[in-house]
Design goal:
The complex is a heterodimer of chains A (501) and B (99). In chain A, 38% of the residues lie in helices and 20% in strands. In chain A, the strands form three sheets. In chain A, strands 3-6-7-10-1-11-12-13-14 form a nine-stranded mixed β-sheet. In chain A, helix 3 packs antiparallel against helix 4, helix 13 crosses helix 15 and helix 13 packs across helix 16. Chain A starts with 7 loop residues before the first helix and ends with a helix. Chain B has a domain of 40 residues. Chain B has a two-stranded antiparallel sheet. The chains are: A alpha+beta (501), B mainly alpha (99). Chains A and B meet through strand 2, helix 2, strand 8, strand 9 and strand 15 of A and helix 1, strand 1 and strand 3 of B. Chain B: It is an enzyme of class 6 (ligase). Chain B: InterPro entries: Asp/Glu-ADT_sf_sub_c, GatC.
Chain lengths: 501, 99
């Protein structure tokens, strides 16, 4: 069953969208939130568990100091107040991936609250504008285990049974909740995306999470509602769960605007519910209604004592904050010598951190930009993945550029090197060696190829002898062709001119 | 004074995944009401300057350093599982939302 969807333009003509985002950030602490089990991605199932994170009777949690510190640093970086006293709370519900039958979270006493993030988005006139996204709260909680659904469907629906791995259960999570963001009109999906992108940038700068969306380190829920245009009202919202790429955040928001508009146009009411985002088809489908199941019966966690972070501690953490995102972008733009347009495209492509890391690995800024926004952006687009999820590191890209600069390879071969790295054939040097991609600058081989080219093109050779140096291009082309693109073009040109000059 | 209805008891039973029949609901609703009445009598003597107590001992700021401790071996972790497959806990079919 598919829903009716109004076109985005028609929907916006009649309705104002308001959105809010809940972003879960998995911290990169050494250990879990309440026990000493290792926090690492990709271990064998159920090798990182203990009585506490398995919820066995008699076990007692103790909170991870570093996780609390990371939570406060995130809060401070988002311009939040830090609670001078707060407690954990039990959120009670039954689900097999949560062995205690409650999630240890925070309820009405979050560690951080009342902040904001100024988000830069491209404006329709080609410039950029700043939208202040207000932060309601950032609170601490724990992740759940991972379920594998066994059955013919491979999905939860129609599964025969499920298999649970509790390695992820208890990994520290910070949930960051925005206030409703209204008045962004047609930019709403782009602002939602830019908020998560720039939040991720901040998280990376803080160094508190690996922040890889493809590994689920950052997960977003998108709340969205529509109200009649100009009414200033707030409509009934839906919550689309686990939208796990920047691109999907924008798409899911757009889709919900169109879907809800179609519902309202029919004179129906938007149903307050959880919806699921389907990456493959680009639609959301109905999950469960907000109902009794949301009766979580929160109460203060008796096994964890209250937190009362001293103001000295908070102030000390304040001194460890990275520079604010806007100042950071201004500094990077100046350092890299990017035009406003180049900078906007870099930010827009989610490539700011990648370019920064590539430059840090030794590449010139313009070269870093060229690879990420050109060749690699094209490949990310083709495979519908995020740039940062491509299986190539900034160090690899810097190495490819270094090989070009050293004239070991040329731009054309560099693309083949990227192909090899993306195909998992190893780092750039390994790909060059395995595929035999290095250009030939050995004079013996080149000289022979040049002699052949001259012999095969006597007219061209005569022109060059007469001083028409532009004609050399034809001979270089012939040499490149005979050497399958692997000749050092600059050296070939020198040899031609030496022989005919 | 608290008034707890049969419907509320049914709702609580649903949340707790306890299957109660009509006779049990009739019997338990007044009992729960009695418990709530008893608790309410404490509120009657606690003046406004007495904060609600969540923790009996006035202790705060107990932290654990972020240092890895030994985990259970997977065989130990799984030893209480009724069914194991692929080194994972096998659980009955899950109905409802994927979290």
């Amino acid at each position: 069953m598919s829903d009716q969807v109004l076109s985005f333009e028609d929907a916006l003509e009649r309705y104002d969208p308001t959105f809010g985002l809940e972003v879960h950030v998995e911290l990169n602490t050494e250990t879990k939130m309440f026990c000493g089990c290792q926090n690492a991605f990709g271990a064998e199932p159920n090798t990182q568990t203990c009585p506490t994170c398995l919820g066995l009777p008699g076990s007692m949690p103790v909170v991870n100091r570093t996780a609390v510190e990371s939570a406060m640093r995130i809060g401070l970086a988002l311009n939040c107040q830090i609670a001078d006293w707060c407690r954990f709370a039990r959120k009670n519900y039954f689900y097999p991936d949560m062995p205690k039958n409650f999630q240890t979270s925070q309820y009405d006493e979050p560690i951080a609250f009342d902040g904001y993030l100024d988000v830069e988005v491209a404006s329709p006139d080609g410039g950029s504008e700043t939208v202040r996204v207000e932060i309601e709260r950032a609170h601490m909680e724990e992740d759940t285990g991972k379920s594998l659904h066994v059955g013919t469907s491979g999905r939860i629906h129609g599964a025969d049974y499920s298999l649970v791995d509790y390695n992820r259960a208890g990994i520290p999570l910070i949930e960051i909740v925005t206030k409703p963001v209204a008045g962004t009109r047609a930019s709403a999906p782009a602002v939602a995306r830019a908020y998560v992108e720039q939040l991720r940038e901040l998280i990376l700068a803080l160094g508190v999470s690996e922040a890889r969306m493809d590994q689920g380190n950052i997960r977003a829920d998108v709340n969205l509602s529509l109200a009649p245009a100009g009414s200033g009202e707030l409509g009934t919202r839906t919550e689309t769960k686990n939208v796990n790429s920047f691109r999907s955040i924008e798409r899911a928001a757009r889709y919900e605007i169109g879907r809800q508009a179609a519902v309202l146009e029919e004179g129906e009411k938007v149903f307050q519910e959880t919806r699921h985002w389907h990456e493959d088809t680009g639609v959301t489908t109905s999950g469960r209604a907000k109902s009794d199941a949301d009766d979580y019966r929160y109460f203060p966690e008796p096994d964890l004592v209250p937190l009362a972070p001293s103001r000295e501690w908070v102030n000390e953490l304040r001194t460890t904050l990275p520079e604010p995102p806007r100042e950071r972008r201004a500094r990077l733009q100046a350092e890299w010598g990017f035009s406003d347009l180049e900078m906007r495209d870099t930010v827009g492509a989610g490539a700011l951190v990648l370019v920064e890391q590539t430059v840090a690995a030794g590449a010139p800024a313009q070269a870093a930009r060229k690879w990420w926004l050109g060749e690699l952006a094209r490949r990310a687009n083709e495979t519908e993945t995020e740039l940062s999820a491509l299986p190539i590191t900034p160090a690899d890209v810097a190495r490819v550029q270094a090989l070009v600069d050293a004239r070991t390879i040329n731009d054309k071969l560099a693309r083949q090197v990227l192909d090899g790295v993306l195909a998992g054939e190893g780092d750039p040097d390994e790909v060059v060696a395995a595929r035999g991609l290095a250009v030939v600058s050995d004079d013996g081989a080149l000289s022979a190829a040049v002699d052949e080219a001259i012999a095969a093109n006597p007219d061209v050779a005569d022109k060059i002898r007469e001083g028409k140096l532009n004609a050399a291009g034809a001979l270089i082309g012939a040499v490149m062709k005979s050497m399958k693109g692997q000749a050092d073009a600059a050296r070939v040109r020198e040899l031609i001119l030496e022989k005919l000059g | 004074m608290p008034q707890i209805t049969r419907d509320e008891v049914r709702h609580l039973a649903d949340l707790a995944r306890i299957d109660l029949d009509d006779a049990e609901l009739d019997r338990l609703a007044p009992q729960l009401e009695g418990i709530l009445d008893a608790i309410a009598s404490i509120s009657a003597v606690a003046a406004e300057d007495v904060p609600a107590t969540s923790h009996p001992v006035p202790l705060s700021n107990v932290y654990r350093e972020d240092v890895v401790a030994a985990s259970l071996a997977p065989e130990e972790a799984l030893s209480g599982a009724p069914q194991v497959e692929q080194q994972r806990f096998e659980v009955p079919r899950i109905l409802g939302d994927e979290q």
